[in-house]
Amino acid sequence: MGNRRIQDSAKIISIRLLRRGRDSREEIARICGFSTRTLRRTVQRYHTTGSVAKAAAIGRGRPRLLHSKDALYLLKLARHAPCTFLDEYQKLLHRYRHLSVHISTVHRTFERAGLNKPISLIVLLNTPPITLLHWTRLPKDDRTYARLWGRAPVGQRAEAYQPFVRKRRFTGIAALALDVGIIASRVIEGSSDRDTFIDFLRNDLLPEMNPYPAPRSVILLDNARIHHSDEIRELVESFGCRIEYLPPYSPHYNPIEQVFSVIKSYLRRIGIEAYPTSAAYYELYRSFQIITPEMTWGFFRHSGLI
User: Fold this and answer.
1) Inter-axis angle of helices 36-49 and 25-32, to 10 degrees?
2) Which residues form the Tc1-like transposase DDE domain (predicted)?
């Protein structure tokens, strides 16, 4: 008859006919529409389990790589440090549990345990507007290191101790060029002003540029007040370069926004303990170096410039 599904109701009828005792097994199998071998298995299953239905399959699918103790270890880590990144959990599993698993395995373990990723409770960063396409500034203080997301049971907020005061404030000034990366940078303590901007143009950025219309010959600025002055325009034109301004309220045209998003993610990942306070300048200069020429193509493409 081939491999086909037989309804449990037909099997129950066969058991009742067999109990009545008026028909042979061959006749019962013919009436119910299956073979005598199926009838024999049905009777055996009924005597063993009290039911004609097949038992539900147990343990289907691929065995899980993380056993219960390994999953419990991850959950304890999440309660102790809810803002830990998935790849950091992965490294801890490899180091202390000698397990090499993919990040998706760690993520699914948290999902099965009912841990989502809500916003952290203790601190929210104030992200200042980042100004420039080819040049911009990045304010940084102790709160920049605070991780914004953590894991907690569904319906609860993740609680974590994060820096809540600014302490020393630094400003990173940088210029971005396509297929090059950061071509000029400077780190100062405090906030930048027009004099700082002009000095950066004169001594750091413009010497790295070329006369128009060569590559890297146009500086694109936003409409901040410190960017508008005859002195700035005359300085840029003295190097044979041009200066253009972004339309108002158009950060989506600014690829440097994405650059500093990457840098802030890098600073949150390494944490405030990675560098001593005395190395704050080096820390920002080092973060500018993570921007590669290959990454700039994605930044410019996402901003619709290429």
Assistant:
1) 100
2) 147-269
